[in-house]
Amino acid sequence: MRRAAITAVGAYLPERTLTNADLERLVDTTDAWIVERTGIRERRILSRGKGSAYMAIQAAQQALQKRGLPAEAIDLVIVATVTPEHPFPATANIVSHAIGAHRAWGFDVEAACSSFLYALSVAADSIAAGRVQRVLVIGSDKMSSIIDYRDRATCVIFGDAAGAVLLEPTEEEVGVMDYLHQADGAGCAFLHMKAGGSVLPPSVRTVRNRLHFVYQEGRQVFKQAVIQMAEVSAALMRKHNLRPEDIAFFVPHQANRRIIEAAAERLGLPLEKVMLNIDRYGNTTSATLPLCLHDYESQLKKGDNLILTTFGGGFTWGALWLRWAY
Ligand SMILES: CC(C)(COP(=O)(O)OP(=O)(O)OC[C@H]1O[C@@H](n2cnc3c(N)ncnc32)[C@H](O)[C@@H]1OP(=O)(O)O)[C@@H](O)C(=O)NCCC(=O)NCCS
């Protein structure tokens, strides 16, 4: 059976660090509150004049270099992002051109914090169907471009970064094994950006009223994130008779350390099996999952079972069973 395996991982983190102490100077907050309520200590911020394509290009090039492949070998580039370089064309086109993936077609996937997992699923299906051979799936978000640094409830959470995976076909029992995804549009009310789309295009009024930033009702999102990430992961594990002891690593979207701990506990997974890097990067939206794979790459062995899971605006959520291929 033909499957899609991850054969390389790349990442890009902007140099500038925004610490909790820096945020204490911007809004009415404390390092102690942020660490206790979110688990975040610092996050990265991309400089002005650079966008999500810049970070995606660096992450993609690192993945290709690690695999020793030229960009011409790529058939498809999918960029997962909620902060595209421009409203159109797709950031994927800008990235393909810049890295020299001249044979590739491409598009962006936007499903809030679930963008990367959905993009990975679509890419894996394309490979499994025999449509394409090699695909780059890149999660890249410059969250600082849509965060209100006067709103203490959101500005402490988010950061900028990109992560990329290279997918190639395999006949072995590794790669993307299965996934379960769900969405519920009723969740739009709790997490969205009010202006900048077709219903409320940018205007002097929308800018004055600060409507071009992330709007979030944190408690509602928190509750749903714990329940849905745990339930969808449990359903996927049940479907394949995977027990907690069969899982090498749980790879959750990094939105809040307390959400991650609660979801892992519901699944009966100890913290040493949970990939965690939220303390250093915050919530980087589409980049959290590939960044986790990048940071834990040296601890992974061929055949390891990973459960990737996510929850995001929409609401969107899902889980994917991945067998590590190298
Ligand atoms: C946003 C979030 C960190 C807030 O934490 P919380 O424990 O739920 O806090 P609450 O929203 O209940 O607020 C509790 C109090 O802390 C205050 N508070 C919020 N942000 C604060 C900050 N940075 N510093 C200090 N106090 C803050 C609130 O104003 C509130 O004060 P009040 O009781 O006087 O009204 C948390 O709800 C969360 O992580 N939600 C999900 C986020 C998420 O996953 N988003 C992305 C989806 S992928």
Chart the SSEs and their pairings.
Elements: E1 3-12, E2 16-19, H1 20-26, H2 31-38, E3 42-45, H3 52-67, E4 76-80, H4 91-99, E5 105-109, H5 115-128, E6 135-142, H6 152-155, E7 160-170, E8 175-183, E9 191-193, H7 204-208, E10 214-216, H8 218-239, E11 249-252, H9 257-267, H10 278-281, H11 288-296, E12 305-312, E13 316-323
Parallel strand pairs: 4-5, 4-6, 11-12
Antiparallel strand pairs: 1-7, 2-3, 6-7, 8-13, 9-10, 12-13
Helix pairs in contact: 3-4, 8-9
The protein binds coenzyme A (COA).
Written overview of the protein:
The chain has 326 residues and is an alpha/beta fold. It folds into two domains: 3-173, Peroxisomal Thiolase, Chain A, domain 1; 177-323, 3-Layer(aba) Sandwich (Peroxisomal Thiolase, Chain A, domain 1), CATH 3.40.47. It is built from eleven helices and 13 strands. It has helices spanning 20-26, 31-38, 52-67, 91-99, 115-128, 152-155, 204-208, 218-239, 257-267, 278-281, 288-296, and strands at 3-12, 16-19, 42-45, 76-80, 105-109, 135-142, 160-170, 175-183, 191-193, 214-216, 249-252, 305-312, 316-323. The strands form four sheets. The protein has a five-stranded mixed β-sheet with strand order 1-7-6-4-5, sandwiched between helices. Helix 3 (52-67) crosses helix 4 (91-99) and helix 8 (218-239) runs parallel beside helix 9 (257-267). It is globular and about 55 Å long. Coenzyme A binds at residues 29, 33-34, 37-38, 113, 152-153, 156, 216, 218-219, 221-222, 225, 255-256, 259, 283, 311-312.
